[in-house]
Amino acid sequence: MSGFGVDFFNADDRAAALNDGSYLNIPRNVRSHVNTLFESFVLDHISRRSSCAFETTLRSGITFDQTARARAAGFVIEMRYVALRDFSMHVERVKMRADAGGHSAPESVLRTIYAASIRNLARAIREMDFVHVYDNSTWGLTPSVLLQAESGEVVYLAEDIPDWLAIALG
Q1: Could you tell me if 84 and 49 lie in one domain?
Q2: Residue 61: what are its φ and ψ, rounded to 5°?
Q3: Residues 106-143: pLDDT tens digits?
Q4: What is the band of 169 on the pLDDT scale with cuts at 50, 70, 90?
Q5: Three-class SS state of 139
């Protein structure tokens, strides 16, 4: 449950909870079970016509399948995409999170997730009702808005955008 009164699902947190509270060495069967729980969470909210929120890396098509179902059921889809100025900053943040007891992944896996996420951002802009893209590079400060899109159209684009966003926009 989120502090905003909307049910929230975070797959990494759920997997850790099922792994005795540890983000380390989560077995594949636990990850698989959590993926099933995640899909059920979204489908249940759609069938009950109840708003929800979830965290995703936007690396696969399942998010788009789920949002298409939700839109067909009358939901408005809003996505907040938070990224850092460049890939190396992502690697550093994951290392910091791991050092604090959170989950991590090898750099090669992070690079694959990062590339897929950037590729899928343009699709999200086209298919979701509202998309807000933020740069969270400056530690401790409120993320800055890089882009806002409504119904597939960019309505705001910051003057100084990072290379990854320029690539995502084509």
Answers
A1: no
A2: -80, -10
A3: 778 888 988 999 999 999 999 999 999 999 999 889 99
A4: very high
A5: coil
Burial per residue of 138-163, b for 16 or more beta-carbon CB atoms within 10 angstroms, e otherwise: eeeeebeebbbbeeeeeeeeeeeebe
- Which residues have CB under 8 Å from 149's CB, separation 6+? 125, 128, 130, 131, 155
Distance CA 22, CA 159 (A): 41
Residue 83 sits in the same domain as residue 145: yes
Look at residue 39 and give its three-state secondary structure: helix
Residue 11: give the domain boundaries: 1-55
User: pLDDT class for 2, splitting at 50, 70, 90?
Assistant: very low
What tokens does 54 get?
């979830």
